[in-house]
Amino acid sequence: MKMLSQWWLPFFLMVWFVPGKIWCLGSDELIALRRAGLSDAAIQTIIQEKVVETAAFSVEEIVDMKRAGFSDALVQTIVREGSFMKDAEPVVYGRNLSPVTMTTVQDLIELKKSGFSDEVIQAVIQAGSDRTEASEREKAWEMLREMGVVIDERRRRFP
């Protein structure tokens, strides 16, 4: 009986004090992210932005990005920009809401496979994002123009 109580109290305390954010990812998913080579900071961003929990990205999509050669910084940018947590406001029912759209992970992987650098992909994301400061957005557009990259804004998908 004493043996059981020695294990029960630490287990209870651990469950009680561990932040709730971690429960959005299972241990298998965390291991898959780690084996793909993601840094602690990138995994922390994935957890904070709740991208798996809100189905913004699946673990497989994030692993595919890393396998395609994306840097951790680029994965973090994609996760932040694709997160539903950014600019989160209470939903007011009855108010006109714009649809949530964004570039797919497959689109970004195709850019990488086509030879675009992480900086260019990051510029594409920042140029199309309302979350990015105006000066940063303008720098991103300028970089893309100088490289001769044309972005068709009719299919703009980043909120």
Query: What gyration radius follows from the Cα positions, in whole Å?
Result: 19 Å
Q: What percentage of residues falls in helices of 4 or more residues?
A: 40-55%
Spans of 5+ residues with little confidence (pLDDT < 50)? 15-22, 93-101
Figure out the total of helices. Answer: 8
Residue-averaged pLDDT, rounded?
A: 70
What sort of overall outline do the alpha carbons produce when their principal axes are compared? elongated
Q: What is the CA-CA span between the terminal residues? A: 57 Å
Give a short account of the largest sheet. Answer: none
Strand content: under 5%
Order of helices and strands: HHHHHHHH
The number of strands is 0
* Number of spatially distinct domains: 1
Explain how this protein is built.
With 159 residues, the chain is an all-alpha fold. It contains 8 helices and no strands. Mean pLDDT is 70; it is low at 15-22 and 93-101.
Can I get a quick summary?
With 159 residues, the chain is mainly α. The chain is 54% helix and 0% strand.
Question: What descriptive keywords fit this protein?
Answer:
single chain, mainly alpha, 159 residues
Topology:
Blueprint: H1 2-17, H2 27-35, H3 40-48, H4 59-67, H5 72-82, H6 105-113, H7 118-127, H8 134-146
Helix pairs in contact: 3-5, 4-6, 5-7, 7-8
